[in-house]
Specification:
With about 425 residues, this protein is of the alpha/beta class. The chain contains 13 helices and 17 strands. Helix content is about 40%, strand content about 25%. Helix 6 packs across helix 7.
Length: about 425
Amino acid sequence: MRAEIIAVGSELLTPLRMDTNSLAITDKLDAIGVEVCIKAVVGDNRADLARMFHHAVNDSDLVILTGGLGPTADDVTREVVAESLGMRLVEDPAILERVRERFTRRGWTMPEINRRQAQVPEGAVALTNRNGTAPGLWIDRPDVMVLLLPGPPRELMPMLEEAIERWLRPRSDAVRLYRRVLKITGRAESHVEEQTQPIYARWAEENPPIVTTILAALGQIELHLNLRSADEARATRRLHDALTSLVEVLGDHVYSTDGRKLEEVVGSLLRERGLRLATAESCTGGLLASRLTDIPGSSDYVDRGVIVYSNQAKVDLLGVPAALIAERGAVSEPVAQAMASGVRERANVEIGVGITGIAGPGGGSDAKPVGTVAIAAAYGERVEVRTFHFMGGREQVKFQATQAALDMVRRLLV
């Protein structure tokens, strides 16, 4: 079954609002074997939406539209769909009464414009909205199924699940999508491709094929393995074998094969070994500690995080020698090492991490350009220290620095 998702709303075409509904819908459809082939975003324009919808109903078995079901003049989804399918809009008294009661319960009088939300294409099935006023709509035609859902996720999700159980799951075949994600750090995308492409290329010739996608993100590379199959046991076994063959080639650059983030992996390693960690951060401003403590239960292994942005703070709070900063500069491996050792000693923990660098956009020099970051991790008698040169803006440099620091700790532990 081929599906297309159309997100409706002019706000989704601006930097202020992102379409996240299509991600949740895709996840639900994947679970029942419905393949999402196209996703589109269109503004609150009748002509644009009509053109997009016309293409979708002629190309897909299922079309899901989100948004544009409200009471205002710019909510045009139901009218465009009804007109495109040649269906007459009729007022549903039951829907109108539910909307009116919702206003009454809040001590308000229903505005007349809300009558629009009771307009239903003749022959469509209305889905009750228990968290809002706009009902969902299900239209079942011989050549296409159409599902209209409101934009707010708390309103959309219950109706989506109802539609899946009532109409979509019974019609989907036994084929399901199975996916595994392999996460890698410390390698460039081209390096990963060079090592793995000879392996995954042959999977495309198998029946059914394993479709492999390589994605580059900040501080990491992801390999997504997708397999559509009616045999769950065989699909699981094939993906396990495929993943194993990739891990054998990539070695300890792989940090996750189960979808976990790097901070989750490091947290698990610390908890398993009964170790505690403290961080000393300059250019990252506490981001490393924030990522670690985003994980529930991180108090088991995170002791403290110290932000030492100024040189004097490094001296006062960590005991970094002022002479060392003067001689080697605040952004240097000796200073990063002194920060890691200093925070570890003061916190009386097993592992200390120090990060010092130039996040930009200013502050760089020919010798130490923007993106230069020195990172150290101290564990027992071992101290790992390295200087990195990250690309990108300020936020990108800060994130990559914390990613490198987490990976440094991971490698110390494994």
